[in-house]
């Protein structure tokens, strides 16, 4: 159950009560696609890094090790040794990203595994069954993510199919949650709003899925080729048509600036691979912008990545040492950068919640954006 605690403009401060604990929102979910955060980050590390929610991927875990295996081992929480909430992405985005390997039909999608080429079928029922086997806290509905700039006719047909798939997801999840051998009988279902950058389709779809009275609602199909301005516009016109008393999740977004802008438009949940992917390449976030630790200017820099940061990297190690590790291709360098970035994101979400609580989100956002623009990309 979602509890809206406070509003500051359109920014929402809430808490989602789940069977695996409360999620304070706005929240950034740390992406562990295959049940692990890339960069050798353990679940013990995630606890230190203020992680509230871990996100794993249905398609990837279905392919390897297999959701049946995860179920036999007690579900994803036991498998990963993580006792806080987990959200599983439905596999719908992989349908989008594996365009060369798939065929979409009314019953679902036929595609080939990117691992071994074997043929796989996934439809709404199969996605729900896999996610039930994984026993995540929140399951995402199976959808198709049309390209952001696809033509109107394609988008209309795709969104209509996604709506029909959502009804099938809801029916199947209710059935699964009632079975005796289901691990998490309180699994929540979030529906996904689609419509590319066509605002009338987005608004109509938001209204239709709101009628289904789900546990939460995501805005999908953004950050896939459109401009930031287009993305913000779609949020401006779509989010007001999603229920305020349910969590709103912007999928796959994004940069710190994207998150700040999303919160201002009423978004509660975010996820993105940026902090981990950038960290693995030596790019680290600070309140003054992003640093590339491969740069020569850090060779003799004995300061932490960011003064005053409480992350495990900044408490002990210098920029010079982390740069050396990265240059020497030592895994520890990558790990320290990833941990710093996740800590930075999770700390920023704490600041966002505090700012909304204090009724000063707009000024906080302006200060944060200005600070981070000071040396971005240098």
UniProtKB/TrEMBL annotation:
Q: Which HAMAP family match?
A: Q_tRNA_Tgt
| Reactions that this protein is recorded to catalyse | 7-aminomethyl-7-carbaguanine + guanosine(34) in tRNA = 7-aminomethyl-7-carbaguanosine(34) in tRNA + guanine
Q: Which residues form the active site?
A: 89 (proton acceptor), 271 (nucleophile)
The chain positions of domain tRNA-guanine(15) transglycosylase-like read 10-370
Annotated Gene3D superfamilies: Queuine tRNA-ribosyltransferase-like
- By what name is this protein known? Queuine tRNA-ribosyltransferase
PANTHER family per record: QUEUINE TRNA-RIBOSYLTRANSFERASE (PTHR46499:SF1)
Positions that bind Zn(2+): 309, 311, 314, 340
Q: Which organism is it from?
A: Roseburia yibonii
């Amino acid at each position: 159950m979602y509890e809206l605690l406070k509003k500051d403009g359109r920014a929402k401060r809430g808490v989602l009560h789940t069977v695996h604990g409360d999620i304070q929102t706005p929240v950034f979910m740390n992406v562990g696609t295959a049940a692990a955060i890339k960069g050798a980050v353990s679940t013990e590390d995630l606890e230190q890094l203020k992680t509230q929610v871990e996100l794993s991927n249905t398609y990837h875990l279905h392919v390897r090790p297999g959701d049946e295996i995860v179920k036999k081992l007690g579900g994803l929480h036991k498998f990963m040794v993580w006792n806080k909430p987990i959200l599983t992405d439905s596999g719908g985005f992989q349908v989008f990203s594996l365009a060369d390997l798939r065929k979409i039909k009314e019953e679902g999608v036929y595609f080939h595994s990117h691992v071994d080429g074997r043929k796989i079928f996934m439809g709404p029922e199969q996605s729900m069954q896999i996610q039930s086997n994984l026993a995540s806290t929140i399951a995402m509905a199976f959808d198709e993510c049309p390209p952001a700039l696809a033509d109107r006719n394609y988008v209309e047909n795709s969104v209509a199919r996604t709506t029909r798939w959502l009804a099938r997801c809801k029916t199947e999840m209710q059935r699964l949650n009632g079975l005796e051998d289901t691990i998490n009988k309180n699994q929540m279902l979030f529906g996904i709003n689609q419509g590319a950058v066509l605002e009338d389709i987005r608004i109509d779809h938001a209204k239709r899925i709101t009628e289904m009275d789900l546990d939460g609602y995501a805005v999908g199909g953004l950050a896939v080729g459109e401009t930031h301005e287009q993305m913000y516009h779609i949020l401006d016109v779509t989010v007001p048509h999603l229920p305020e008393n349910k969590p709103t999740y912007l999928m796959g977004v994004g940069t710190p600036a994207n998150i700040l802008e999303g919160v201002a438009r009423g978004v509660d949940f975010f996820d993105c691979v940026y902090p981990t992917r950038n960290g693995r390449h030596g790019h680290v976030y600070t309140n003054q912008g992003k640093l590339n630790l491969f740069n020569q200017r850090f060779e003799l820099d004995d300061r932490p990545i960011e003064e005053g940061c409480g992350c495990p990297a900044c408490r002990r190690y210098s920029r010079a040492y982390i740069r050396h590790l990265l240059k020497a291709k030592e895994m520890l360098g990558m790990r320290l950068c990833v941990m710093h970035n996740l800590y930075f994101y999770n700390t920023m979400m704490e600041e966002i919640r505090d700012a909304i609580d204090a009724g000063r989100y707009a000024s906080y956002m302006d200060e944060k954006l200005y600070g981070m623009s000071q040396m971005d990309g240098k």
